């Protein structure tokens, strides 16, 4: 019943839920609403709601802002909502790189990737034939 309601009223429900509860100034309201959101998204009956939720960039941005909150338990609950996102959602991360101030590749990763092919192999060469043990 809830899954059907959320499917039909997805935009209205999450707009109000995010604006009123998740972004509340009350610590208890904010923490409990984030916890409930995680439970809603992880419920198997709400799979279509979860896929729709993680497909939207504004929800990703909201979750990432929860990770920056000063209160550790809000960060903790926000992380549990953030981890619901499947790995293929990297296209949303790429779109949000500039607004989050993550311009360009980190120099360490880029230089490490360039050096991978240039490192000498330190493993000894294997012998061409392996001698067999005599039968006992």
Write the layout of secondary structure elements.
Blueprint: H1 2-8, H2 10-22, H3 27-42, H4 47-54, H5 57-67, H6 72-82, H7 90-95, H8 107-115
- Cα radius of gyration in angstroms: 24 Å
What coarse outline follows from CA principal-axis ratios?
A: extended
Secondary-structure element series: HHHHHHHH
- For the terminal residues, how far apart are their CA atoms? 72 Å
Low-confidence stretches: none
Largest sheet: none
Average pLDDT, to the nearest integer? Answer: 76
SSE class: mainly alpha
Q: What is the beta-strand fraction?
A: under 5%
- Tell me the count of domains: 1
Question: Can you walk through the features of this model?
Answer:
The protein has helices spanning 2-8, 10-22, 27-42, 47-54, 57-67, 72-82, 90-95, 107-115. The protein is an all-alpha fold and 136 residues long. It has one domain (2-102). The radius of gyration is 24 Å and the shape is extended. The termini are far apart. The mean pLDDT is 76.
